[in-house]
Amino acid sequence: AEQIKKHAWFADLKWDDVSQKKLVPPFVPNLMSPTDLTHFDESFIAMTPRIS
Protein backbone atom coordinates (compact mmCIF):
# COMPACT_ATOMS: atom_id res chain seq x y z
CA ALA A 1 0.00 0.00 0.00
CA GLU A 2 2.89 2.39 0.67
CA GLN A 3 3.99 2.26 -2.97
CA ILE A 4 0.49 3.27 -4.07
CA LYS A 5 0.28 6.03 -1.46
CA LYS A 6 3.56 7.51 -2.74
CA HIS A 7 2.41 7.58 -6.40
CA ALA A 8 2.31 11.06 -7.97
CA TRP A 9 -1.45 10.75 -8.62
CA PHE A 10 -2.04 10.84 -4.85
CA ALA A 11 0.51 13.59 -4.07
CA ASP A 12 -2.11 16.01 -2.73
CA LEU A 13 -4.14 13.41 -0.84
CA LYS A 14 -4.03 13.54 2.95
CA TRP A 15 -4.00 9.88 3.90
CA ASP A 16 -4.76 10.61 7.56
CA ASP A 17 -8.00 12.26 6.42
CA VAL A 18 -8.82 9.14 4.39
CA SER A 19 -8.30 6.80 7.34
CA GLN A 20 -10.33 9.08 9.62
CA LYS A 21 -13.13 9.40 7.04
CA LYS A 22 -12.86 13.20 6.97
CA LEU A 23 -13.01 13.56 3.19
CA VAL A 24 -16.17 14.76 1.49
CA PRO A 25 -16.87 12.75 -1.68
CA PRO A 26 -17.07 14.83 -4.87
CA PHE A 27 -20.29 13.06 -5.89
CA VAL A 28 -22.93 11.36 -3.74
CA PRO A 29 -25.62 9.66 -5.83
CA ASN A 30 -29.24 10.14 -4.88
CA LEU A 31 -30.60 6.59 -4.52
CA MET A 32 -34.22 5.52 -4.44
CA SER A 33 -33.36 2.33 -2.52
CA PRO A 34 -30.32 0.26 -1.49
CA THR A 35 -30.70 -1.74 -4.72
CA ASP A 36 -31.09 1.28 -7.04
CA LEU A 37 -28.99 0.73 -10.20
CA THR A 38 -29.76 4.07 -11.87
CA HIS A 39 -26.11 5.16 -11.88
CA PHE A 40 -24.78 1.92 -13.40
CA ASP A 41 -24.32 1.54 -17.15
CA GLU A 42 -26.87 -0.79 -18.77
CA SER A 43 -24.11 -2.88 -20.38
CA PHE A 44 -22.64 -3.55 -16.93
CA ILE A 45 -26.01 -4.50 -15.46
CA ALA A 46 -26.66 -6.91 -18.36
CA MET A 47 -23.42 -8.85 -17.77
CA THR A 48 -23.66 -12.38 -16.45
CA PRO A 49 -22.19 -12.62 -12.94
CA ARG A 50 -18.99 -14.63 -12.72
CA ILE A 51 -17.69 -16.36 -9.62
CA SER A 52 -14.10 -15.34 -9.07
From TrEMBL:
Keywords: ATP-binding, Kinase, Nucleotide-binding, Serine/threonine-protein kinase, Transferase. Signal peptide: none annotated. Residues 11-52 form the AGC-kinase C-terminal domain. InterPro entries: AGC-kinase_C, Kinase-like_dom_sf. One of its GO terms (molecular function) is ATP binding. This is AGC-kinase C-terminal domain-containing protein. It comes from Hesseltinella vesiculosa.
